[in-house]
Write a structure and sequence with these properties.
Blueprint (H helix, E strand, L loop, with lengths): L1 H15 L28 H5 L32
């Protein structure tokens, strides 16, 4: 039981440090990627981390905007016996 607790605590401690990131910079001696074709300037690290509309679309799943009675469907017949 003690080994499981120590293992769980160690895993939690390691995971706690994963999200800590200060301002991002290229590695020493390296540069940012070249500007994409057609871009006027090389994107900054903040620009590269900003999600696009395709990566994080706006929510538009509201189907019922206006409540209305459905009209009858004369072709919705019960199955034959």
């Amino acid at each position: 039981m003690k080994h499981g607790l120590a293992l769980g605590f160690g895993a939690a401690l390691l995971l706690a440090g994963c999200g800590a990131a200060s301002s991002l910079k290229p590695a020493e001696g390296r540069s940012l990627p070249v500007a994409p074709y057609g871009a006027k300037e090389t994107p900054t690290p903040a620009d590269l981390l900003k999600p696009t509309n395709q990566e994080r679309p706006l929510r538009s799943d509201e189907v019922l905007t206006n409540s209305a009675e459905r009209r009858s469907d004369e072709f919705s017949l019960p199955p034959p016996n």
